[in-house]
Each structure stands twice: as structure tokens, then as C-alpha cells.
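The pair is quoted verbatim below.
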Amino acid sequence: MKCPACKNSHRRKDGPKCSKCERPFVFFDRGAGITDHRFSHLIDRASAAGTQYFTRNQLATQWALAGARAGGMARIVVGSIFGLSGGAVAIGVTPVGAVIAVAGLALLISGVVARRNPAPPDLSRMQGWIAQWTAAGHEIPLLLGEPGLDRSPPQFREPDVFDYGVERILIVQHDILVDLFVRNNVHATQRALVISERGYPSYLLPVAQRLLATSPDLPIFLLHDADTQGLMMRARLERSGMLPLAGRRIIDAGLTPRDVGRIGKLRALGPKARGNALPADALPFALLAGGFALAFADNVPLTDLIDRKDPDGRASFG
């Protein structure tokens, strides 16, 4: 076991505290399914080395991706060793050599597949780990647990929304998505007023209503989960009458389950067994923010970016 505090390689038989710095391990039992060092590493990846806010779903996604990388690489290494060993034995065309070579090839292939197709994120398990970690006194300062902009410190309030100039409105399905974009300053860099479909944060609802009443050409984007409820978001908004949307161009930027199935990085995160359903905030933040930067620039939905290639021939999104 490696201590996340001092990086000491600790032997489990030496007890539940680090033998060097005496930090107690949170996940000491073998049945925990994770170690302190790995959990700390997940937080580091989800927060981009402590530079951005993230959600529980994004942390669960990092666990799924990390598991695929580690498990896949182990199979690739073992498979390569078996393949080379089997090849050496098989030079004499022996049955043993053939069996070893086939086993090595199978492990190699499964390793490549595992790295490309991670297991779907397990949010409930991740929530348990988060609870254990924080109960042990370890804060996760950039984790967005619950929406908090209605009661945030002054630096997160916007006394004058025109400080950054609003060029578009982004309406999101879940309140936590507002926090994700605002606390990571995407609203300012992309000049977007971000509000949830239920009107959160409440102090911005009248601002959004006023902007829509006075700016008929203001682009409106929607972001929702890739599932049935997400796809019904626009209909819910139009029925609620919360915002004057009639006759306006509304760009549905949320992904659909079909889109999830088409994007290699996301396909396994929204598995077929779940109908390719995927929460919007399960997307790694860099992918989500980068996708919206492109969508905002061209006033197009994310789905239009899936097959678009950049000058280097790489997919623009996904």
C-alpha cells in the first residue's frame, strides 16, 4: 500500500497506519475495493490537479476509466509474456506451446478491449467511498456535493450579470450543472447565463426572463442527460412557461443515448444494458467544457460535432 500523504510504501502487516508518517488508512480492509492512494489519485484526475470543480458522477467516471487502464494494461503485459513464451515453445510445434500462445493472445486482446471499454461508473459505490473519506476527516474541497450558489460566498454571486456580457443562455437539467459551469468560470469565458430548468439560482431567473424579453435573437442552449427524462426537457420547459421560449430557436445540445453509443470514449460509460443512458455530468469536465466551447462558437448542438474532424483529422468532440 502507498500512503497518499508521504508516498511511503507501507506493508499491510504493519498495521492500519502508515509506518512512516502514521497517517491512518481509510481503506485498509482488502474488501474495500480501493486504496487511499488510488482514491487520492482519482480526486487529482477529476479536479485536474486541484484546478477545477467536479461532481460525484465525474469522480465515478474517473474510477471506471482508471480501472480500465490498470486492468487492461495488466492483461496486455501478461498476454505479451504468455504470447512470447508460447511462441518460443511453439517453435517445436508442441501442444503446450500452442495452448500458451493462444492464452497469451486472448489476454492481449481482452486487455486492449478493457482499456477501450471501461466498466460503467458505479455512483452508489463511489458515494460510499466519498462518505468514508470525509468521515475520516479528509476534505474534498473541489467536489460539488449539493447545489450551493443560492447560498454561496459573495465571489460566486453575480451582482451585475453584464460584467461579462451575456451572448447566450444555457439551460441545464440539473441544478448541480449550474454550479459546475459557474464555479469553473465557464459562464464568464463563454459569456453564457447558466440556469437550471427549475429556475436555479433564483436570483438569475428574472435576469434571464428580462434578457429573453429584450433580446429576441439571443441563442438558447439546453443540456440534459442522455436518457428519456433528458430528452423530454424541452417539452417540460415549454409547458412550465417559466421562460418566454415560444417562437425562439432552441439548440438542444444534450446528447442522446444513440450519440453515447457512437462516441468511443463514452460508449461503455452508458452501456447497452442501460440503454446507453448517461448523466450529463458523467462526461469528464474537459470534454464537456471543450464541446460547449465549439457548440457555442457555431451555434450547433453537440451531436453535430461528433463526426466533425479538426485539421489533424481527430474528432472535434468525443
About this structure: The chain has a mean pLDDT of 80. The longest helix spans residues 56-90. The two ends are 35 Å apart (CA to CA). The chain has two domains: 1-143, 146-305.
